[in-house]
Structures are given as structure tokens and as C-alpha cells.
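Hey, resending since the last one bounced:
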Amino acid sequence: MTWADAVQPLRQSNFAWYFASRFVNTLGNMMASIALTFAVLDITDSAAALGQVLAAHFIPMIVLLLWGGVISDRFPREIVIQISNVASALTQGAIAVLVLLGTAELWMLIALSAVHGAVSAISFPAMASLLPQLVERHQLQPANALMSLTRNGLTVLGPTLGALLVVTVGAGWALAIDAATWLVAALLLIPVKIPRAEKDAEQKSTIAELREGWTYFRSTTWLWAVVLGFGFLNMIHNGALFVLGPVIAEDTIGRQGWGYVLSAEAVGLLAMAVVLLRVPVKRPLFWGMIAISFASVPMLVLGVNPNLVALVCAAFVAGAGIEVFSMGWNLAMQENIEDRMLSRAYSYDALGSFVAIPIGQLAWGPLGAAFGNSRVLVVSGIAYAVICLLVLTSRSVRDLPRRPVDRTEERTGGGTVEHPVESAG
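The C-alpha cells again:
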């Protein structure tokens, strides 16, 4: 794959506008994540309270994800994303105002995070499944890599910039910027125009569409096997790194140091995204699961020796592995699942992958208090690596290949002509 092939998706108007929208939105999100974390710690100085706020976002998201998948398969996905972006701007803006005014209380952050989680449940399946409608199928890997470059390039700067704002002017400003970027992202989607596929003459009920999605999900072995594994992996990752990680960082490498660690992971993501612009992924799930196992390394380093240099190196390696899995998973989903089913498949993927995240967010703080943060982190890292290897015992995961490109089945004009037969990450 040449560099000209790698940037070819940007020559298509629909993808270029979508690329710009995600660029702006990602910049705000990367700062907001670390700002919200330390805004909660400023109020309570409690890992358990931080877990409650994070769980408040994920619980309604999990409950409504399947409904979001049906909506995104039934209505224009770019419109669904626009409406969700505006709603997210309102919720994040409200959090920012409360933090800036110094009137934020824990219950307020929990309530607003819950509303934002409900909105995310609608937008997530639409965002995950829109890309195949924007580019031709032979451009899926470079298009996914370009989106990763946007996300990962900004995460190099976002956490560090967010941490710098927290240290200098406070968490509220990073949250306010995030709210503004949601609005700008919605505006940038206005020029995206996708030809509408013909709908079935008889509109199915929501229950019927959910049942159809479930039947497809449980009959596709590679799909449910990876999602099942990530139900446990995401629980461990969020509990160990996002609940216990900032607490240990506060006592060892400091808030700014934690920002460096998060940025180092982003550098790993970014570096691997550049590699994947040129290097095709032949066995997407086999190499993806091997690579994602390296996400266990930062947990082990945090538990054994929370040294800044060691953590930065471990985070870089983990980021590279996460990017390989992300690419492999998107290609597996986008090439092997038909367009009319894709949002629902992503919603079942997200439900299974996210359902245990609140357990990690709520349980790891008390587990750390009971058994020691370091011990819990070491056990978490070992368990994470073992689960990755267990998923690879499924032959359908190990052997799933790339689907050969048939130019007679390509998308034309940004619409889907034919697409026969996430996120777990």
C-alpha cells in the first residue's frame, strides 16, 4: 500500500467532513477525560467516588445500547450522530459550569454523567457503523488508520494539555472546551450526504430487530468469543488503570506525570496507526488478540514499581497493541457483517464489552483498600494476559481472514451497493 493509497479516503467529500468532525470532537474529549477525573478527586479525594461517577456514565449507556443500535440501523446515522453531539454539548457544558463556579457536588456529577451516558448509547453504534458508508471497501483499512491517526495524535496532546489546565486554571476549562467541540463537531457533519438504501416494505418492530440482531450475534462464533473476552478485559482495564491508576499516580508520579503516561499510550497508538497505513493486516483477530495482551504491562508496572520512565515505556507498548487490535476488530466487523445489520452488531458488541465496566469502576477501589492497590494491580495484569490467550483458543478467532475485495461489490458514491457476510475494544 502506497502513501497515495493511504490518504485516498480524504479525497472523498463525505469522509473528509466526517474526519474533520471527529478531529474536533476528539480534541475536547481527550482533555475532558482527565479533567473530569481530577474534578471528582478535588471534591472527594476518593477512588470509590471516582468509580461512582465513571459508572454513572456507563450504566445507562449499557442499558440503552441495543436501542441505540436499532435506531442507527433504522435512521440516517449521520443525523443520529449530529443530534447526539448537541445533547452531549449540553450535558458537558453543565458539568463545566458547575466546576467553574465551584458549586459542583458529587451527586450532580453523577446525574449529569448518567445523562451523557444515555446520549452515548445512541451515538456509539452510529459512529461505529458509519465509516463503511463513507468509503469504498478496499479503502477501509486506510480510512480506519486515518481515523486512528486523528484520535491517537490528539491523545498525545490531549491528556497532557488537560492535566496542564487542571494544574494551572482548573478542570472546568477543559470541560468547557469539550462542550464547545461537541457543537462544532455537529456542524461539521452537515455537509455529509449519504444515499439512502431501500427500506423493507414492512417496518419491523424494535423487538423483532433486536431479536434478529441477537440471532446473528450468537450464531457468529468469532464475534461472541471476542466480545465475551472483552467483557472481562474491559472490567479489569477500567478498574485497574482508571480507578486505581490516578490514585497511585497522585502519591508517586503526580498528576502531571499521569498525564505523561496517558500521552505515552497515545504515542504508541499513533505510531502503530502510521505503520498500519502501509502494512495490511492479514489475520485481523489473531494478531489483534496477541497485541492487546500487552495492555497488561502498565498494570504490572503500576503494581510492582510505579516509576515514571517505566510507566511511560509500558504505556507506549500497550498503546501500540491496542491499535493493532482496534484495526483488526474494525476490519473484521466492517468486512464480514452486512450494512443493514452493522449497527446492531456493534451494539451487541458494545453491550457485551461494556456490561462489566461498572463492576470494575465500583469494585476496584474497595478491592484496593482491602487488599492493597499494588497487589490488586499485579493480579489484574496477570488475569488480563491470561484472558487474551483464552480467547485465542477459538479457531474461528485465530483463523478469520481478510475478505478479498470484489470490485463488482464496491460502494459507489458513498452509498452501499452490497456488503455481505464493534466495540469489543
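Residues 407-423 have pLDDT under 50 and may be disordered.

Sorry for the duplicate.
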